[in-house]
Amino acid sequence: MESSERGAFLLTDLRKWHGPVFGGGALCVLVNREGLGPLWYAGVGLLVVAGLMRWSLWRDQRPPGGLVPVPVGVPVAGRWRAVNGPGTKVPSHTHSHAQTYAIDLTFPPGEESAPGVRRLWSLGGRPDRYPAFGRPVLAPGDGVVVAVAGRQRDHFGRDSLPGLAYLFLEGFVRSLGRPRHLWGNFVILELGEGVYAGFAHLRRGSLRVAVGERVAAGQQLAECGNSGNSSEPHLHFQLMSGPDPETAHGLPFAWRYRDDRGAEHHGVPEDTVHFTSAGTSAGH
Fold it and tell me: What GO molecular functions are on record for this protein (predicted)?
């Protein structure tokens, strides 16, 4: 590795620690009792440095223009609903953690019911009360598993106003940590040709694959859960240009799917659209 490449790698690796730097700065400010003294200035300085570290990572993760959507299979079976997807806006989430073209999928209640949003109480519903909880998560193409995590708990849904307020605070704190703090239990799958698929918020103990395992399109990887930064059980899906969500670029993708009228589409459903898979897409 050339010295310039080694230096760039070390700089990127260093910037990943913006969370602890922010935490140290906040602690200095909170414990300071001497007004505008050395501890206060040190804390503010650390906060500024942490902000610059995170901003530079976010800037570097903005994907280049002109990317062609990668055709992949729908990673779930049955009738689902698109939320926070690139069919409505880009970036759908944020450029951070390669989420530029990410999509969230919820399983809409049919004969089963799901908790509705309450004003004040309770703070959240048990995850197994949501129809999405435990639904199979499928490989969108042939690939190799490169990373997994499966031990984080499935927390209660955030289905009240206080619960949603807590979710935003929780999400900020989680964003200061490593990807597993945001994603919860996850699988990262290498699809080939520099394309990686990420699946987040999986159910604890549901992983059916291990690192290094080869999987086939349509094979079950895990189950939908409510781990990590999640308001209710759902699947977070995205494509990336590398296996590390903190440094990769998000990649656009295209599915073959049918809407509730039976019309077939090739692309990504818009937010709130209910859809089912129309078969495996060509390509990966």
Answer: metalloendopeptidase activity
Annotate 43-55 with DSSP letters as a single string.
HHHHHHHHHHHHH
Q: Which residues of 47-86 are buried (b: 16+ CB within 10 A; e: fewer)?
A: beebeebbeebeeebebeeeeebbbbbbbbeeebbbbbbb
Mean pLDDT of 150-156: 88
Distance CA 275, CA 255 (A): 11
- The burial class, CB within 10 Å (0-12 / 13-18 / 19+), for 259 is middle
Instruction: Write the CATH number of the domain with boundaries 70-277.
Output: 2.70.70.10
Q: Is 160 exposed, middle or buried (0-12, 13-18, 19+ CB in 10 A)?
A: buried
In angstroms, rounded to a whole number, what is the distance separating the alpha carbons of residues 283 and 274?
24
Are the C-beta atoms of 234 and 83 separated by less than 8 Å? yes
Give 36-56 pLDDT, tens digit per residue. Answer: 888 887 888 888 888 887 777
For 52-76, write each residue's pLDDT tens digit. 877 777 778 888 888 999 999 999 9
CA angle 181/165/223 to nearest 5° reads: 40
What confidence category does residue 28 fall into, taking pLDDT thresholds of 50, 70 and 90?
confident
User: Residue 113's pLDDT is what?
Assistant: 52
What DSSP state is assigned to residue 1? -
Instruction: Mention every residue, 6+ apart, whose C-beta is less than 8 A from residue 78.
Output: 107, 135, 276
Buried b (16+ CB within 10 A) or exposed e, 131-151: bbbbbbbbbbbbbbbbbbbbe
Query: Number of H helices and number of E strands within the chain?
Result: 5, 14
| Domain edges within the chain | 3-60, 70-277
